[in-house]
Amino acid sequence: MSEIPGIYVFCAFQADVPEAFGTAILNGNETPVFSLRYKDIALAVCQVDQEVLPTRENLMAHQKVIAKVMEKHAVVPMSFGNVFHDEKNALYITEHLYEQLRELLPHLENKIEVGLKIVAEEHWLQEEWQKDPTFKKWSGKGTLQSAGAFYDRITMGELAQKFFLSLRSKVETDIYVPLSVLAESSKLNDVLSEKMLLNAAFLIDRNLEKEFDEKVNSLFEEWEGKVVFKYSGPWPAYNFVNIRLKIEGSS
Predict the structure, then answer these.
(1) 143 pLDDT higher than 50
(2) Distance (Å, rounded) from C-alpha 12 to C-alpha 75?
(3) Among 95, 35, 90, which residue's Cα sits nearest to residue 65?
């Protein structure tokens, strides 16, 4: 690991005065987190003397600092791993993106992102498969001998794709759409496995967080036993920030 003294950047936010945000432990070294300001836009940063690798501990430290800043400010998160040579180079990012950040940050004020992944229960998938007359005809029998055989067969061909697309469409209609009504914005991301039926992000007003949580709980009760809900947050608005802070000059 090469030694490269520099400034690690966590996120951008609006601020008129210098601020401190405790410490971060990166590469096993504890270092103060402070703000660098260009006009009224600031970066939350710390000093590092090595490349910051994507270890579990470093990734958690990155997110922890952003969460700390979020307690007081709306933030535009920096992607992990950006190290600039010095404070001057780090501040260039705010000068370069100043107008975009000035326009974007007020829209993120008092907003948080939450995520919802929905994964089908294996027994429910088998039940739905067995109800499908097309698959009954295709398989030549109404039941399968093992879960392994089930997955081997439904991942084959166009019929399997249609089967999963129909389930995902139902989940989007019955779960994603009602939640989107309560959100400032929402986004469908790619599913990460064949059993995942939904991978969504929602930007919500903090004042409506309780109402949104209650709706998630209500939908979970309706679908309990069929799918698993993986509800996470609050996060900074990773899925709703269109600009990327990483520019030439970072390591």
Answers:
(1) no
(2) 6
(3) 35
Sign of the torsion angle spanned by Cα atoms 223, 224, 229, 233: positive
Ordered by where they begin, the domains of the chain are 3-109 (no CATH), 112-239 (3.30.70.100)
Cα end-to-end distance, the chain, whole Å: 13
Q: What is the pLDDT of residue 47?
A: 93
Q: Using CA atoms, how far apart are residues 92 and 247, in angstroms rounded to an integer? A: 10
Overall pTM surpassing 0.70 (yes/no): yes
Distance CA 105, CA 123 (A): 45
CB of 90 within 8 A of CB of 43? yes
Percentage helix, strand, coil for the chain under 3-state DSSP, each rounded to 5: 45, 30, 25
> What amino acid occupies position 247?
I
Question: Residue 94 to residues 74, 81, 99, 177, 242: CA-CA distances in angstroms?
Answer: 16, 17, 9, 36, 16
